[in-house]
Design a protein that fits this description.
About 40% of the residues lie in helices and about 20% in strands. It has about 300 residues and is of the alpha/beta class. The chain folds into two domains: about 180 residues, Rossmann fold (3-Layer(aba) Sandwich), CATH 3.40.50; about 100 residues, GMP Synthetase, Chain A, domain 3, CATH 3.30.300.
């Protein structure tokens, strides 16, 4: 693929589609939404409104880091605090599909309000080929596969979709991001799911449980950085396990599963062969730094039969 021609073609198509109107881009800080946002800004300039939905499910310090990084690119990002809405929508839900759909519906309701305020008629979304394939195969419902909820026909939301990356896989998106001048921190960062840390909490998603898994993910990313694998993170399981406090007393606490995989396009994946020293350091830090965790496991399952994320 000629990636420079791809960029030129997509910029022209976005300009033609939007015309003299306005568009809004949903930026999460992940690779796909970041690249889609920069593409759209290149095409539309001031006629693009960029919003970051602070849903309480993002990585540590994500809102501040995203706004600062994109300001350096000349792109103003409006942060919308909507944490209460998302946690309310996820309350009491344990089934993975129910959680994904609750996230999706809240995501687009929140975006719908932002669209009305910005007077935009188009939504720029970072949907990629893997999202579409997995949704159509029934592996899991990706919230950003817009035809599944009728956004292309403006069903109840008031805008149409623009998905410039829809035919690309992750390696292609990274190359496009680099050519667009996106900092390596964004175009080379590990994939992060649209529903955020809600996909790394097995069972009900609460602010307290998200806080635990956010810390676990940060520790895993820091301790595996030298491996340069496709993805690495922690997962908070629904079960609990007996352990011992530092004083030797019985404790009944949380279980963290560590997941690290190598992959080219996210359609298949193999577990990364982390050294025993790395695994030991991860275990020690998680138990020491996250109160209430009594057990740490390492997931050795490839994709298939497993998926990369847990829900």
């Amino acid at each position: 693929m000629d990636y420079r021609k791809f960029i030129t073609r997509q910029v022209a198509e976005i300009k033609k589609t939007v015309g003299k109107g306005k568009a809004i881009s949903a930026l999460s800080g992940g690779v796909d939404s970041a690249v889609a946002t920069v593409l759209a800004h290149k095409a539309l300039g001031k006629n693009l409104t960029v919003v970051f939905l602070d849903d309480g499910l993002m990585r540590q310090d994500e809102p501040t880091e995203v706004r600062s990084a994109f300001a350096k690119l000349g792109i103003k990002v409006k942060v919308i605090n909507c944490q209460k809405n998302f946690f309310a929508a996820l309350k009491g839900l344990a089934d993975p599909e129910d959680k994904r759909k609750a996230f999706r519906d809240t995501f687009y309701k929140t975006l719908g309000k932002a669209v009305k305020q910005s007077k935009a008629m188009f939504l720029v979304q970072g949907t990629i080929a893997a999202d579409v394939i997995e949704t159509k195969k029934g592996v899991k419902s990706q919230h950003n596969v817009l035809e599944q909820i009728g956004i292309d026909s403006k069903k109840g939301y008031g805008f149409s979709a623009i998905e410039p990356l829809k035919k690309l896989f992750k390696p292609d998106v990274r190359i496009v991001g680099k050519l667009l001048g996106l900092p390596a921190k964004f175009h080379q960062r590990m994939p992060f799911p649209g529903p955020g840390l809600a996909t790394r909490v097995v069972g009900e998603v609460t602010p307290e449980r998200v806080k635990i898994v956010r810390k676990a993910c940060k520790i895993v990313e820091e301790e595996t950085a030298k491996y340069k694998m496709f993805q690495a993170f922690g997962v908070l399981l629904a079960d609990r396990a007996t352990g011992l406090t530092s004083g030797g007393r019985r404790a009944f606490g949380n279980i963290i599963a560590v997941r690290a995989v190598d992959s080219k396009n996210a359609m298949t994946a193999t577990p990364t062969k982390l050294t025993w020293a790395t695994l030991t350091k991860i275990q020690q830090r998680i138990v020491k730094e996250i109160p209430g965790v009594t057990k740490v496991l390492y997931d050795l399952t490839p994709k298939p039969p497993s998926t990369i994320e847990y829900i």
